[in-house]
Design goal:
There is one protein chain. The chain is an all-alpha fold. Among the domains are: 1-152, no CATH class; 296-391, Serine Threonine Protein Phosphatase 5, Tetratricopeptide repeat (Alpha Horseshoe); 398-490, Serine Threonine Protein Phosphatase 5, Tetratricopeptide repeat (Alpha Horseshoe), CATH 1.25.40. Helices cover 67% and strands 2% of the residues. The protein contains 26 helices and 2 strands. Strands 1-2 form a two-stranded antiparallel ribbon. α13 (258-270) packs antiparallel against α14 (274-284). This is Tetratricopeptide repeat protein.
């Protein structure tokens, strides 16, 4: 018998590059296949080898016009469907994925574990709900040899908040491995350190565990946790501890990484120890050139990182500066816009444009932001005038999209439901579907007593997001109105 090695699915990273990652410790997955001869004594061995080395398409061509066995035909069909399902799940083609899975329910087995994994991945695409938990538990129960790999993959496919439940189910399974579990649990803890704002008690507990393990990476991440909470003395202590453990060889390199040095420099700056920060920069600038321009202001990696996902924290860092540059005012404008403060965003963009030459590479992007803020703040005519002057066709299209969505929202607030229905359909034709506007269109149908269309609209949302209670309640309300029997529904 010859093993046919199947390519394993790659799990999505759990966190940003600088954070600790869940390590995949998968074992090789092999399927034992036995080349067989048919009654006509046709030798299939070369085709099995082609399937193994070149894939299902080459094997399918080689098998054409030959009387091959059912086992070979089934394996080729499986490989073809597996490829289609992989692409469907990867590109979020949910309907195609559901059809493929429904056509071959018997393939979700331990022998074809990749199919079972894709089935689980497709299920968690809409949330880690009851069905996903059931499928995960079924794999753990029926396929204990694949329990660890499945757990690792599921941690990569879901939010970190689901990690505790996933690990608890793995711990209760027959394939539970204590050492691997402890490693995954600790890595999950590090993920929370890197992304969540921990309470004092949780931070203290993390510190004890990190100290016990003398984990340099964990100490670094705890340093960043305290830095984000503006507890700079604690942050400095943990950055120093991280560097010390790295140098003592616990991290295996003996040399601190850039993020450790960066954290210490930024913390020293926040503590007012600018001379110490400057000396540390000079000491490490030759090894990490990016540290030369490191400060809490413009160009700071820390500022760039914070401004990607934390607008309020970004603004706090920006307005700590004695003075702001044009690009910093533009950055502030975008953060205020994210916080739904269009008037404040408008003023920030105006300050940026006053100080920014038209030749600046950020000028067009800043003017685009200013146009969006104007429109959202109610200055439609001025916004329309500036939008017509935008040089980038893509930005013009995005502005038109925002303008139309705002008009639909305003019409809904004014109870002009027919306008909402007509313009929502035109919006979808021009820009594609938006979840929020689709929900509003459903309620517009409901308020116009077009209950059948309301049910159809809300049902599509429930199918796409089966664990969103808001859409489930909306569908139930529309169905009750359609039946004209609220007493039976509530």
């Amino acid at each position: 018998m010859k093993p046919l090695t199947l390519a394993l699915l790659a799990a999505t990273p759990v966190m940003a590059a600088e954070q600790a990652q869940v390590q995949l410790l998968e074992r090789q997955v092999s399927v034992e296949v036995a080349p067989q001869r048919t009654q006509s004594q046709f030798d299939e061995t070369p085709i099995w080898k082609i399937l193994e080395k070149e894939g299902w398409q080459a094997a399918q061509q080689a098998a054409a016009n030959n009387k091959t066995s059912e086992k070979l035909n089934t394996e080729i069909s499986y490989q073809e469907a597996l490829n289609q399902l992989t692409q469907a799940v990867k590109t979020h083609q949910n309907e195609q994925a559901r059809q493929l899975l429904a056509a071959h329910p018997d393939w979700a087995s331990c022998q074809r574990i990749q199919w079972a994994w894709l089935d689980l991945q497709q299920e968690v695409a809409t949330g880690y709900g009851p069905k996903a938990k059931q499928k995960f538990t079924q794999i753990l129960t029926a396929c204990p040899d694949h329990g660890l790999s499945t757990t690792q993959k599921l941690l990569g496919w879901t939010r970190n908040t689901n990690g505790s439940d996933i690990l608890a189910r793995y711990r209760q399974s027959a394939g539970y491995q204590p050492e691997a579990y402890n490693k995954l649990a600790y890595q999950l803890h590090l993920t929370q350190l890197g992304q969540a704002r921990l309470s004092t008690a949780d931070a203290d507990a993390a510190g004890k565990q990190i100290t016990q393990l003398r984990d340099a990476k964990g100490a670094e991440m705890l340093g960043w946790q305290y830095y984000r909470q503006k507890q700079y003395s604690q942050a400095l202590m943990w950055f120093d501890q991280s560097i010390q453990w790295t140098r003592s060889g616990s991290a295996g390199t003996g040399q601190p990484n850039k993020k450790q040095i960066e954290g210490k420099i930024l913390t020293l700056q926040q503590l007012g120890r600018s001379e110490d920060a400057s000396r540390l920069q000079q000491q490490w600038a030759s090894r990490y050139p990016a540290l030369k321009k490191l400060n809490a202001g413009e160009g700071s990696p820390q500022l760039t990182k914070v401004c990607k996902s934390e607008p309020q924290a970004c603004l706090e860092l920006l307005y700590q500066q004695p003075s702001m540059t044009a690009s910093q005012y533009a950055l502030a404008g975008w953060q205020w816009y994210k916080l739904d403060r269009p008037l404040t965003a408008k003023r920030a963009f105006e300050q940026a444009l006053e100080a920014m030459p038209g030749s600046d590479k950020q000028f067009q992007d800043t003017q685009y932001g200013y146009t969006l803020a104007l429109n959202k703040a109610g200055f439609e005519q001025h916004a329309e005038f500036l939008a017509n002057k935008l040089a980038d066709p893509q930005r013009k299209m995005l502005y038109a999209k925002q303008r139309e969505s705002k008009a639909i929202l305003n019409a809904y607030e004014q109870q002009n439901y027919q306008f909402v229905i007509e313009h929502s359909e035109a919006f979808e034709d021009s820009f594609g579907k938006e979840v929020g506007l689709t929900e509003i269109k459903g309620w517009a149908y409901y308020n116009q007593k077009q209950n059948t269309k309301a049910v159809e609209t809300f049902r599509k949302l429930v199918e796409a997001y089966p664990y969103d209670e808001r859409f489930q309640d909306a569908l139930k309300t529309a169905e009750c109105a359609q039946k004209k029997s609220y007493k039976l529904c509530y």
